[in-house]
Amino acid sequence: MLQTLGLAALFASAVVVLEFTFDGSANPRPPSLSGWLALLAGVFFGLERLLRGFTAATFILEPERFVLERRGERIEIPSDSVKSVRSWRLPWPAAGLSWRMRSGRSLGVGLRVEDPLPLLEALGQRMAGAREEARHPLTAFVHARATVMRHGALLRGFKFVLFPLLPGGIMFRANQYITYGGPFGQYQMYGLAPYLQSLFTYWVSFAAMLVLYAALWRLPVEALTFAATWVSPARARGVRRFAEVACAVLYYAGSLTLLGAQFLL
Fold first, then answer.
1. Fold (topology level) of 56-146
2. Which of the four, 25, 78, 132, 195, has the lowest number of CB atoms within 10 Å?
3. Which bin fits 149, alpha (ψ -120 to 50), beta or left (φ > 0)?
4. What are the TM regions of this chain, as residue ranges (predicted)?
């Protein structure tokens, strides 16, 4: 939930930047509301990370029981009392496992697992239902998502913080020539602070634009990847690799192509 709220706040901040930054003023700047929304998104993401740290647990398979250990708590589940285990049927924003007891009740504790396949395979040695769940298309989809071309924090930082400097810098330089007659015209006329403010404005604007642009492509690509994996679970890793490469090409090359078209058309 916190991750979803963080994404919603981030997208709202991007929309505010795009809608209300370039309002015809001589020295446009992003609205303060966009900054507060971005800060709120950071708070949600930070809380989500803290919550994951405080609720982190270790799952242990013993001969006659399953053991779930976390901070100050140990839950022992007799193997014979578990009827079935299954992957979460909605693996967004994260994947996990739910447990059904022979009494007909659920365990009451969900187990968030980025990649449930190894655990399901281990459970499959004593539970036929776990073996079937390990072969489920949804498990193949989540496994491929967790293991093929994962996006770490450094890559996300480059993608949404550093890369926007390229298209933003191009448009900033074009604006300097068109409005002030040269690459340092604003600096020479008004000083360093307004010059850097303009550069910041273009950088933030293109960062917001690229966040929405990436989401615009990611949603249909994820839907097609899920559909393709459902049809052919054995090709899940190849499908995921193709999807990630396609998203990267559309993001980097596609955004620069669209920018270049603004100067040619």
1. PH-domain like (2.30.29)
2. 25
3. left
4. 33-51, 160-180, 200-221, 242-264
